[in-house]
Amino acid sequence: MTTANALFPSTGLWTREQVILALYWYLQIPFGQIHNRNKRLIEWAAIIGRNVNALSYKMVNLSSLDPVITRSGRSGLKNRSNLDEAIWNEYKGKFEQLTRDAESLLALRGKTPRDQLRLQPDYQDSIESDSENQDSEAVNWPVLLEPTRSVEFEGESVERVVKQRLKQQFFRSMVISNFDGKCCISGLALPSLLVASHIVGWADAPSERLNPHNGLALSALYDKAFDQHLLTLNESLEIMLSPILLKALSKTPYDCGLLGVEGRVIATPRRFKMDAELMQRHRLIFLKKISDNRLI
């Protein structure tokens, strides 16, 4: 029988289990945060039985398979293994399956659901990162992963709140990372004030719950306006404000940061292109709400 320790060797060839967890974490952090001073990477490396340099190199190996990285002029490391490529292809677009498998492997390492929730990144470390790493992330990447229609995105509700939050946090990490840890409207880079907003909500599109193409990084006020369909994006990703909201703002004595954003183009996502069909669904509800209000 294979022991848990045999699945996570500290030297020699990487195992399937170690590469799965490396991929799980790779998708949740910006490329510029992959370095041996990242406190989260140090903690993750210990879990899989490798040192932080080995995990950093493995993540950069995985980046050589990432079209977003390679087509932006970055090549990653050239010594990726056949296993790296097989794992990348196996989980491509299958975020729900990746989450389930990673949770099982972390449990095998003695990590409870609460431990796993704590281990997921929330960009506190990125605020404290040194300047050269921030600069390395500032490149504008024009190539994005296209949306994939698959039931594998579906995140079924579970009895345990912590396990549900694990999935929500995985979605959050991918979405916030996709916008470089900043609100895509205002540029605010304070993680505690950012929300990973679903374009089409959790209840309305179960198969898109964990789909990062169905997410925007928004600060709390913009998230609420977006969720209420008082703010949306046109086909050019320019911000549209509802007349309902504009009327309320005209009676507001102070500037709350909404009037000035109308017509502005949101920040470009780094890895996952927004799903145009889902955004259209959001926009149609926005327009219907305006129409219904005029009939009142």
Short description:
This protein is mostly helical. It has 14 helices and four strands. Helix 2 crosses helix 6 and helix 8 packs parallel to helix 11 (161-178).
SSE blueprint and pairings:
Blueprint: H1 4-7, H2 16-26, H3 39-48, H4 52-63, H5 67-70, H6 82-91, H7 95-108, H8 113-119, H9 124-127, H10 131-136, H11 161-178, E1 194-198, E2 215-219, H12 220-227, E3 231-233, E4 239-241, H13 243-250, H14 276-294
Antiparallel strand pairs: 1-2, 3-4
Relative strand content: 5-15%
Mean pLDDT value? 84
Number of domains: 2
How many helix segments? 14
Poorly predicted regions: 123-143
How many strands appear in the DSSP assignment?
A: 4
Give the strand order of the largest sheet, numbering strands 1, 2, ... along the chain.
1-2
What would you note in describing this structure?
The chain has 296 residues and is mostly helical. Helices cover 46% and strands 5% of the residues. The strands form 2 sheets. The protein has a two-stranded antiparallel ribbon. Strands 3-4 form a two-stranded antiparallel sheet. The longest helix is centred in the C-terminal third of the chain and has 19 residues. The chain is elongated and about 70 Å long. About 7% of the residues have low confidence.
Please name the defining characteristics of this protein.
46% helix; 296 residues; mainly alpha; elongated; 2 domains
